[in-house]
Amino acid sequence: MTEWAPIKFLITKLMLPFLTFSYEFIFPNYGISIILLTLLIKVLFIPLMNKQYLAMKAMQDVQPELQRIREEYKDNPEQLQKELMQLYKVHGINPLQGCLPMLIQIPFFIAIYATIVSPLFKAEILKPGINPGLFPFWLSNLSLPDAYFVLPVVVALLTYWTQKMVIIDPQQQKLIWLSPLLILGFGLKLPSGVLLYWAVSTLLSGIQQVWIMKKEPEVRVEIITPRKK
Questions:
Q1: How many CB atoms lie within 10 A of CB 13?
Q2: How many domains, in total, are found in the chain?
Q3: CA distance 31 to 137
Q4: Residue 59 falls inside a structural domain
Q5: How many whole angstroms separate alpha carbon 138 and alpha carbon 135?
Q6: Assuming Cys at both sites, which of 76, 98, 108, 226 could form a disulfide with 55, CB separation 3.0 to 4.6 Å?
Q7: Do 192 and 32 meet the contact criterion of CB atoms below 8 Å apart?
Q8: In a domain, 226, yes or no
Q9: Residue 109 is part of which domain span?
Q10: Each residue's pLDDT tens digit in the chain (229 positions)?
Q11: In angstroms, rounded to a whole number, what is the distance separating the alpha carbons of residues 167 and 172?
C-alpha cells in the first residue's frame, strides 16, 4: 500500500517531515505533533468538508418530503426515481456530493497509518532521549496499541455522535451503533498514534458539523398532500 505513489508522497513529503519538524521546533512530544498534523490536515479540508456538511444538512431538511415521496410511489419505482430527481433538482441537492470529501480523506488516513508503523518512525521515536509517546502513564509509545483501550472507545463514541447529528431516517437509526461497534473492534489493535489522529480528526469534524448545522438556515420544503389513487 505504501508503494502507491500518492501514499508514498504523503508519507515522505508531509507526514514524516511535519512530525519531525514539530517535535524539534514546536514541542518535543510526538503525541502533540500528531495532534498538530491533524489540525493542519483539517484546515486544508475545511472548504471541502463545509460542502459535505451542507449537502448533509440539505438532505436532512428535505427528509419529510423524501419520506412522503417514497411512501407514495413505493409501488412505482420508475416514478419514484423521477420524483426524487425532481426534489433534488428543485432544492439543488446532489446526493453524492457528501461522499467525495470523505473519499478524498481516505489516503490521508492510510498515510498516517503507514507512517506510524513505518521503520523510519519507529526508529525515530526509539532514539535515546526522544519522548516516544504522549504521556509517560498513557500512550507512552505511539507505535503500540492503547493498553487501556481509551482511544478506541473515544473514537467509537465520537463516530456515534457525528452520525447521530445527520441520520434521521428511522431505518438507518436502527443501525447507528453498527459503525461505532465495528470501529471499536477495529481500533483495539491499531497503533495509538493512528487512533490519536482518528480521535482528534473526528472531534474536529463534529465541531465543524455542529457549526454548519446551526449556521445555515433550514431548507423550507412544502409537504404536498399525496394524491388520491
A1: 10
A2: 1
A3: 13
A4: yes
A5: 5
A6: 98
A7: no
A8: no
A9: 5-215
A10: 556 788 999 999 999 999 999 999 999 999 999 999 999 999 998 888 887 777 777 777 887 888 888 888 888 888 888 888 888 888 777 766 666 667 788 899 999 999 999 999 999 998 999 999 999 999 999 999 999 999 999 999 999 998 888 776 666 677 788 889 999 999 999 999 999 999 999 999 999 888 887 775 554 444 444 444 4
A11: 7
| DSSP of 40-68 | HHHHHTHHHHHHHHHHHHHHHHTHHHHHH
> Quick check: 70 and 225 in contact, CB under 8 A?
no
Is residue 18 in a domain? yes
Determine the 3-state secondary structure of 199 from DSSP: helix
C-alpha cell at 165: 447529528
Chain CA centroid to CA 206, Å: 9
Q: How many residues are listed for the chain in this entry?
A: 229
Distance CA 116, CA 146 (A): 14
98: in domain:
yes
Q: What whole-number distance in Å separates Cα of residue 123 and Cα of residue 145?
A: 17
